[in-house]
Amino acid sequence: MTDLSNRFNPAQPVPSEPPILSVRGLCVTFDGPREGLWGPPKKVQALDNITFDLARGKTLGLVGESGSGKSTLGRAIMRRLPLSNGRVFFEGKDITAVKGEALRRLTRNIQLIFQDPYTSLNPRMTVLELIAEPLLVHGLVSSIDEARDQVVELLRLVNLPVETIDRFPHSFSGGQRQRIGIARALALKPQLIIADEPVSALDVSVRAQVVNLMQDLQQELGLTYVFIAHDLSVVRHISHDIAILHRGHMVEMAGRDAIYEAPEHPYTKVLLSAVPEPDPSHRRNGGVNAPKTLPTQTLAFDGVGCRYRKCCDKAGGHCQREAPPFAKHEGGHWAACWHVGMT
Amino acid sequence: MAYAQPTPILEVRDLHVEFDTMSGLVQGLRGVSFSVMPGETLALVGESGSGKSVTAQAVMGLIGLPGSIVSGDILWKGQSLLTPEGQKKAASLRGKSLSMVFQDPMTSLNPLMTIGAHLVEVLRRHMKLSKPQAFARGVELLEAVGITEPRRRMAQYPHEFSGGMRQRVMIALAIACEPELLIADEPTTALDVTIQAQVLDLLADLQKSMGLSIVLITHDLGIVAGLCERVAVMYAGSIVEAGSAATVFEQAEHPYTQGLIRSTPRLDDRRDRLVSIEGAPPSLLHPPKGCAFQSRCPVASRQCDTKPARQETPAGGSVSCWTPSLPAWADVAKTTEVHAR
């Protein structure tokens, strides 16, 4: 394992505990459309050379637009997808190649919270059945009724009234359903939770409730989160570190305040400027302060150079010739851009 | 513009809409009143279920069974659209002078028709153009909404367009007949933030160049602040507060509005916790007799058991609350401080 995380820095104490999750050079490719009718499928590089560490009890905010690979990364960490390259370490153990029973046991420790609480819960199952299902599947209880006590405990944990235990999902509001989803993810007492846009489908006033609940649970249970989001507005409060994905590449990663107050990659700046501010003095005057982003997702990539260069104001000759490495800069700030001062 | 006199282009008066469902009568709208002046942008803000889309549907005449408009009136330049003659007039207005952009660009275009066919159909139907004229106008419209290579794009099908591009096509369709009022129902909710910013800029541009009135329906206060002059905040089927964007954001009167503003995440906010409004909106099947926000309101009192009447605010807006302008949330003062910067 190549150690990319520690250049010598006397100010930074050596971490006492190894990271709970380490990802090294992770790549995922999918088969795209075929060339011609019988030709081989074109490869689509969904994730390219993703590397990061996540410390226990911390939250990594993973931000990217649709098609950036953020959900794919979540699924790759859970080993729900074949990796084409790279390694994933969980609690120091290489889990890149585990399968069968070992993989099943691993999923107890890594659980997922889904985006849409309206479609991710089976409408024909009661709250009890929904939350007890993972326990049953993993053989921790032999019947639903045996799980009742544990389910009651979980409902308390996510602040749902215990008397709702025999109700069906349709009688709950969006925020309450997401709480059921969280309780379901917590049932197996996981260490790491991957939350794939857990609040995107919720109303603003309810969103905060769910995010705050997740923070409380983190404190109480020492959970580690990978929190996936499509914009930068909601992740600031919950994340310790934030990573920005752009077309399968990690373009920037830093502590959260550094991302918001001193963004380095031009794409991060675009994402920040695109978030509408609830402040009438920030008026849109049609195009003047619009972020230059139009072709990011649709632009064909010709294989060399920086992937962001065609939408980038600063792009120069170097950006045409060679892709910038994802490198560590001052203050633990990681970025993939030739224009960020290397130290 | 020919109509310089202060007749609102659209006025909705005390509109009540009910849905007769299996589980009972759902009161979708419980007395909604607002007006839109020519060239003005009004935002209808609210959570899901607050009635903002039902309002738009009512104006567009899209309330179908089991729903029905039980009372109130919708006026277009002072004339009712709900009387028998009015309904006839309304049918000719809709799609032409009064048009709508829907939330989901993925499902609102016919997958079997080219983009050009969509545009040509609308232009021939409402503007009575010939086929070649309609095609030429279609190309212009695509260009106006910022689609590159419009001539080639005319022959393409919706699946060849990305989400943001499809929403641009929807906007092109909506402005094809040079409407006077555009209702945009969550036009950017299904889009990425960067694309959202572009679509909002496009709307702002079109408004300037065409003198369009816009009713923007959204749940995102951020969008409102950047685009709209006036804001109406909806909660549980009624408008609880209305006023100019500047006053509503700076000095929200209703506790719900105050709560909504403080729970909208801000990029410049360094706090570790988001602030939230506890609880959930009431069911409109059995709406509360008193103030609908009572159960979630931190400053609710006995008085709130009776429904508060709408009253004017000093800043020229209106609010339905017994104790308006009372700082309802302990940290609101702090939020506004961050706000003022």
Automatic annotation (TrEMBL), chain A:
Keywords: ATP-binding, Nucleotide-binding, Transport. Gene3D superfamilies: P-loop containing nucleotide triphosphate hydrolases. The keyword Cytoplasm does not apply. Pfam families: ABC_tran, oligo_HPY. GO terms for biological process: peptide transport; transmembrane transport. InterPro entries: AAA+_ATPase, ABC_transp_ATP-bind, ABC_transporter-like_ATP-bd, ABC_transporter-like_CS, Oligopep_ABC_C, P-loop_NTPase. GO terms for molecular function: ATP binding; ATP hydrolysis activity. PROSITE patterns: ABC_TRANSPORTER_1, ABC_TRANSPORTER_2. This is Oligopeptide/dipeptide ABC transporter, ATPase subunit. It comes from Celeribacter baekdonensis B30.
TrEMBL record, chain B:
Signal peptide: none annotated. GO terms for molecular function: ATP binding; ATP hydrolysis activity. Its main location: membrane. It is a peripheral membrane protein. Keywords: ATP-binding, Cell membrane, Membrane, Nucleotide-binding, Transport. Residues 10-261 form the ABC transporter domain. SMART domains: AAA (SM00382). Pfam families: ABC_tran, oligo_HPY. GO terms for biological process: peptide transport; transmembrane transport. InterPro entries: AAA+_ATPase, ABC_Ni/Peptide_Import, ABC_transporter-like_ATP-bd, ABC_transporter-like_CS, Oligopep_ABC_C, P-loop_NTPase. It comes from the Bacteria. Coiled coil: none annotated. Gene3D superfamilies: P-loop containing nucleotide triphosphate hydrolases. It is found in: Cell inner membrane. One of its GO terms (cellular component) is plasma membrane. Belongs to the ABC transporter superfamily. This is Oligopeptide/dipeptide ABC transporter, ATPase subunit. The lineage of its organism: Bacteria, Pseudomonadati, Pseudomonadota, Alphaproteobacteria, Rhodobacterales.
